[in-house]
Amino acid sequence: MKHPFDSIYSNDERHLDAIADESRDVLVLNTGFDPAGKSAPHPPRQLQLTAASTRLIAKCSRILRTGGWMFVYGTPEELPFWALQLSADASSPLTTGRMVFKYWIALDIEDASANKTLKPSHLGVLMFFKESGDKKNPATPHLNIDAARSPHAYCAACGKTVKDWGGKKHLMNPHGAALSDVWRDLPRRVIRDNLIPEDVIQRLALLTDATRENCLHIIQSGRGIEVTSAGNPAILKHSTPTVAASTDASSPATLELDHIHDGDCVSFLNRVKELHPRGTFDLAFADPPYNLEKKYSAHDDAMADAHYIEWCNSWLAAMADNLKPGGSLLVLNLPKWCLHHVAFLSKRLEFRHWIVWDALSDPRGKIMPAHYGLLWFTKPGAKPVCNYSPMGNRSRKDFVQPPDAPKYCLRASCIKNRKQLSNDEKVELTDVWWDVHRIRHKRDRDAHPCQLPEKLMARIIKLTTRPGDVVFDPFGGAGTTAIAAAKLGRKFVVTEIDSRYAKITREKLEAMKQHADMFGEFVVPRKSIERKRRDVTKRQIESYLQELAAKLKRVPTEDDVTSERPEMLREIDLLYPNRGAAFKRAKIGLAS
Ligand SMILES: C[S@@+](CC[C@H](N)C(=O)[O-])C[C@H]1O[C@@H](n2cnc3c(N)ncnc32)[C@H](O)[C@@H]1O
Q: 245 CA distance to ligand 1 centroid (A)?
């Protein structure tokens, strides 16, 4: 495979300085990570970019054209520091535009066969876009998405698509699957150096129409990151941010276990710390609001970025404070926020993994956003629990089991059939999890906007705790953590600020106690949620728009719909936030 870009080492400063301002469309930067040390857990430590790396970033921002792309390749532990420096570089006098974080591409590429515990297989590529400095004249990002489509994959057992499209099958593009921000189709390999693999660079070139003339591949000479000091809990305590609690804390006189506590999590955690200064939780897991302007009744989900990060730091610090030595802290969030969480937490705790939850989402945006970061940190002072036994070892029933091979789909009927036929190939569990779907059917969810699947919580709890251990969740929602913990024989402590969600959880727990099945296993009976049936569904609207697009050979306009079926516009207004959201679904009709 021929390398599409010229390569240059970062310490060749004369060469770099000679490159004209804004003269390259695409830059690919290799960070100088240590391939041997990248999977070892490190003690809490303060990391920062070296002075040479900071200079290099300023130079890259200078030579990249406005509207151009910059890719940065490295390890999940170190890339966040590159990302934060790139974002901060907006104020550099050398740059005309502003570097904007767009995606964290998770590469699932490392060979994961010979490891004792959870093996890192994930390396990252940051994707930054150079936005114009002139707000009135924004740059338009270009990506050649069609060149980078891959054929749809079909299940080796049932022959249906590996991805279960559920009720969204009409959004499947006949030319192949849209590229997502988790790349799992590349061959695995043993990573021995810190150079971006050729097949990855080829795909980046396809995606950006890169040529030898308009691109540059820069290799960081030496290490890109340095440790400035060891993490010091005594000092760090003073840096615990004090963000005012949004409601009064529940202030229990004793800590009640197996309990849903109403109120603000930070106030609650501060009180727990007073009651049990040596640490209480074996696992603290958080699935916070993602600041996506969702309509929570007791939480503002549209904070300014800096305020959101400060708020997150307040509960992250309090969770870390209340962990037992050896305890695990896991936090689920969008990659954009995970960057900040890694930088904040690695001073206090040991970084273990940036687990990628490939949540199999629907096509939206240029690159399909499927990647949720699940960060795993542990508290020093005792050996952390990691209940995974690799395929070659004798498997323990109470451990997390190796997942089914990715060549199979996740449909329940297919799983059942293939287990009966012993068509049941397994692969090693790594830090890329693709085998857990988000909840796909309304019948499986409660009245909560972002409920997690129980299978995800069960895996996290099983992996990081033992029976009888205490699991904490500050953002209880509809109670997924509490239910999974109770089923697995762990104690739970949950806070939830919205009393309606706390009530849903209590009712489910109560119902569960009364419905232990004949083997003593808990089951939660589902109350079917009453939903108003509509005359026209979203699927019918989108199929209609796609057929119209195929007939007209272009995306239809509102006038086209008004003259054909005016009632559809009324339905669109009722079901979509705006008309554009429905009309953009029509494009698939042009692909067939
Ligand atoms: C993303 S949802 C969690 C969903 C949950 N994992 C589930 O599976 O149902 C976040 C939850 O945090 C709650 N919340 C927001 N701010 C809070 C706070 N300060 N303290 C406690 N709960 C809070 C919201 O009401 C919401 O239910």
A: 14
Pocket mutation for ligand 1, best pick of 299, 456, 461 (most atoms within 8 Å of C-beta): 299
Q: How confident is the model over 117-162, as pLDDT tens digits?
A: 677 889 999 999 999 888 788 888 889 888 878 888 899 999 999 8
**Segment 42-47 mean pLDDT:** 89
Determine which residue's CA is closest to atom 16 belonging to ligand 1.
299
Measured between alpha carbons, how far is 75 from 33 in angstroms, rounded to an integer?
7
Say how far apart CA 570 and CA 376 lie, in whole Å. 47
Q: Whole-angstrom Cα distance, residue 18 to residue 482?
A: 60
pLDDT at residue 518, rounded to an integer: 58
The single residue listed with the structure tokens 């272009």 is: 554
Cα 471 to averaged position of ligand 1 atoms, centre (Å): 16
> Higher model confidence: residue 8 or residue 520?
8
pLDDT digits (tens, 9 = 90+) for 516-571: 665 556 677 666 555 556 678 888 898 899 999 989 988 899 899 988 888 888 88
- Highest mean predicted confidence (pLDDT) among 145-149, 323-327, 582-586: 323-327
- Which ligand 1 atom sits closest to the C-alpha of 480? 8
Ligand 1 center–CA 464 separation, angstroms? 22
The CA radius of gyration of the chain, in Å to the nearest whole number, is 25
Q: How far is CA 95 from the centre of its chain?
A: 30
Beta bridge partners of 7: 217
pLDDT at 167 over 80: no
Of residues 95 and 556, the one with the higher pLDDT is 556
Residue 506, CA distances (Å) to 271, 477, 484, 511 in order = 22, 11, 14, 9
Pocket of ligand 1 (CB under 6 A): 246, 264-265, 287-289, 296, 298-299, 448, 450-452, 474-475, 477-478, 480, 495-498, 501
Query: By three-state DSSP, how is residue 16 classified?
Result: helix
- Spacing, Cα 476 to ligand 1 middle (Å): 5
**Exposed e or buried b for every residue in 492-510, given b needs 16+ CB within 10 A?**
bbbbbbbeebbebbeebbe
Longest dimension (CA), the chain: 76
- Ligand 1, residues 290, 337, 496, 503: which to mutate, most atoms within 8 A of Cβ? 496
Identify the residue whose C-alpha is closest to ligand 1 atom 19.
264
How far apart, in Å, are the Cα atoms of 389 and each of 116, 193, 399, 400?
7, 28, 7, 7
Q: How far apart are CA 123 and CA 87, in angstroms?
A: 20
Nearest-CA residue for atom 12 of ligand 1: 475
State how far the alpha carbon of 460 is from the alpha carbons of 2, 285, 289, 385, 522, in Å. 42, 9, 19, 11, 19
Question: Measured from the CA of 264, which atom of ligand 1 is nearest?
Answer: 20
Domains and CATH numbers, the chain: 7-150+185-228 (3.40.50.150), 260-514 (3.40.50.150), 538-591 (no CATH)
For residue 188, give the DSSP letter: P
